[in-house]
Amino acid sequence: xxxxxxxxxxxxxxxxxxxxxxxxxxxxxxxxxxxxxxxxxxxxxxxxxxxxxxxxxxxxxxxxxxxxxxxxxxxxxxxxxxxxxxxxxxxxxxxxxxxxxxxxxxxxxxxxxxxxxxxxxxxxxxxxxxxxxxxxxxxxxxxxxxxxxxxxxxxxxxxxxxxxxxxxxxxxxxxxxxxxxxxxxxxxxxxxxxxxxxxxxxxxxxxxxxxxxxxxxxxxxxxxxxxxxxxxxxxxxxxxxxxxxxxxxxxxxxxxxxxxxxxxxxxxxxxxxxxxxxxx
Length: 280
Prior knowledge:
single chain; alpha/beta; Rossmann fold; 2 domains; ten-stranded mixed β-sheet; 10 strands; 41% helix; 21% strand; globular
């Protein structure tokens, strides 16, 4: 596994570069800094490109942290170039806001949604810096989508000596079926229940214990995205970790929002999103 840190020269990508440097040092990973030179106005061809300054600062930062790194520049739109490059290796892709105008958000949606659809490997989305890492929140859905993110988050939190909280949100019951009734009935002691959610929470707690620490379990009820964001604010977490379905075009996405994408759009803290991997 290596880090692919990305920038199009927009100043809002600098926190992602800083966080990526810390991530590379903490996990002991090699770093590729990918700069995307997007289409310039012909009158700007001879002007100083913002990537030059960003690369200069990044190289200084990488060397200060003793990182093994390489630099790469590609031409094109960042939403196309970044996923293409991410597919060329086993990367954690570190991304920041790309500075798109509001009208583009209205017309085509936010870049993070498009990038999540195309990048198979883990994504660290960093709108703002949040270090040191003291508290991490892992969202547990019970369908197994969170397992990849959970493993990576426990490893990172262990190295940073951060406390981990496992969160499950019980949504409003739209269909009356036995498992849903059992989850709601067991809400106060859900982690001890013989439900898929209960088993997933216990597995997460055991994983944290195996790393030599204790985990806190939090249960909320209500709209999933709203409750996750409320917990992030109330708990003052430094990192939010979420799973995502194996395929973003899965049937589930037709009738349910992509929770990870919705949270990442609103949450300003670093968010780790790792897509679920099916067993071979």
